Amino acid sequence: MDKQPALNIGLVGHIDHGKTTLLYQLTGVWADKHSEELRRGITIKLGYADAIIRKCESCGILTTKSRCEKCKGEAKPLRWVSFVDAPGHEMLMATMLGGAAIIDAAILVIAANEPFPQPQTKEHLLALKAKGINQIIVAQNKIDLVKKEQALEQYLKIKEFMHKILGKEVPIVPVCAQQGINIDALLEEILKLKVPERDTKSKPLFLVARSFDINKPGTEIKDLAGGVLGGTLKKGKLKVNDKIEIKPGIAIKKHDITEYKTIKTKVVEIRAGSKKLDEAFPSGSLAIQTALDPSLTKADSLAGCVVGLENELPEITYKMKIKTNLFEEIVGAKEKQIKVEPIKTNEFLLLSVNTAITIGNVLSVKKDTIELALKIPVVAFPNERVGIARNFKGHWRLIGYGEIL
Ligand code: ZN
After folding, report:
1. Cα of 380 to ligand 1 centre, how many Å?
2. Is there a smaller number of Cβ atoms within 10 Å at the N or the C end of the chain?
3. What is the phi/psi pair of residue 400, to 5°?
């Protein structure tokens, strides 16, 4: 068995289509239960839960439990994966894009008993496309609530729609998450997902998706655990005791000017799920405990930052040049089909760079290349995918993606 989860799989889709229930069926974790959140500490606060996919040695069924549910046979572990639950409800485009930066593949949950496609479903699918995630499995959920013909009709609609947007076929697995029906077929598709080639030779780069303080209120200072960063190692290796820097770091407000200060610290502990690691490779979700004062990391205050070895990260930048690719229509708008107008000088765009979100003022437009002045600085890596959203009637709507030049 691997030392770390092989893949980070995002669970995306419209609210109420059953993401949370499906996550429970796959992992045994209720992601939105507060008590569970407290009990589980680090893992659940990351918004992720792990599962080991196993095969029953007697009947061959796939399961995430240690014993086969059908014949009670011993189940042999095949693949360890982590699921990243995209926050539900008030999910903004921004959160979705930030989350998409740390996943390798996604399960798009679509309810069989709702009209298809929902604006949010389309929005999520395009967000995945914008971030360059092309391994997608559709879970057609709640099939118990519709007639067979209805399920089949929607299945064909999904198939055509996915082909139109992604230019390829994707697996569509009918399931009933509530009753755990056909979950093994979904696991089979998860087993087929390709593990991207991992770069372990470069200098480490860790993307921070979440950050928090794991101490219980009232803990004495001498007993305080250092601030924790959750996210994924994009490349390189990271070891316990490595001296690291975090950028852009802390925002310090002086009068009307906000400055960003790089944070330097060291790695105290690395965890993949509940497993402690001495050394981490780029695979799955990780939690890094640092020597930082936990007040610096609480409430996701460092989400969007990047971590590297001390003095090895590029400088932060307030200016960025992007080669853009615009969609034809605005996504997620309730109103039907609104054309995406070309980007104009002086307009403000929301950009998602790695796990960071920033607003940029367009300084110049030359064909498909735009230059922007950023409100919040980022650490920009050439060729990195950037999601681009435009404000439309008070909502940020994804209009396309770009590549950092
Ligand atoms: Zn069995």
Report:
1. 49
2. N
3. 165, -165
Digit-coded pLDDT (tens) for 9-31:
998 887 778 888 898 899 887 66
Residues making up the chain, counted from first to last: 405
CA 219 / ligand 1 centre spacing (Å): 46
Percent of the chain as helix, strand, coil, to the nearest 5: 20, 40, 40
SS3 310: coil
Cα of 71 vs centre of ligand 1, distance in Å, is 4
Residue 86 in this model has a pLDDT that exceeds 80: no
How far is the C-alpha of 274 from the C-alpha of 46, rounded, in Å?
12
DSSP annotation of 155: H
pLDDT for 193: 97
Whole-number Å distance, alpha carbon 162 to ligand 1 midpoint, is 34
Cis before 171? omega within 30 = no
d(CA 23, CA 139): 12
Per-residue pLDDT at 43 exceeds 60: no
Query: In sequence order, which residues have a C-beta less than 8 Å from that of residue 331 and are 6 or more positions away?
Result: 119, 122, 123, 126, 397, 398, 399
Distance in Å, CA 26 to ligand 1 centroid:
17
Judge contact between 348 and 361, C-beta under 8 A.
yes
Distance between Cα 75 and ligand 1 center (Å) = 8
- Ligand 1 centroid vs 389 CA: distance in angstroms? 48
Quote the CA–CA distance of 82 and 326 in Å, as a whole number. 31
Output the six-digit token pair for 139: 């879970």
In the reported structure, the alpha carbon of residue 60 is separated from the centroid of ligand 1 by a whole-number distance in angstroms of 6
Please report, as a single letter, which amino acid is at residue 81.
Answer: V
Strand partners, 251: 260
Q: Render pLDDT for 279-313 as a digit per residue (tens, 0 to 9).
A: 999 998 899 999 999 999 988 889 899 999 999 99
Domains of the chain: 7-192 (3.40.50.300), 205-309 (2.40.30.10), 317-404 (2.40.30.10)
If you measure from the C-alpha of residue 346 to the centroid of ligand 1, how many angstroms do you get, rounded to a whole number? 62
What's phi and psi for 101, nearest 5 deg?
-70, -20
pLDDT digits (tens, 9 = 90+) for 123-161: 888 888 888 899 999 999 999 999 999 999 999 999 999
Share of the chain above pLDDT 70, in %: 91
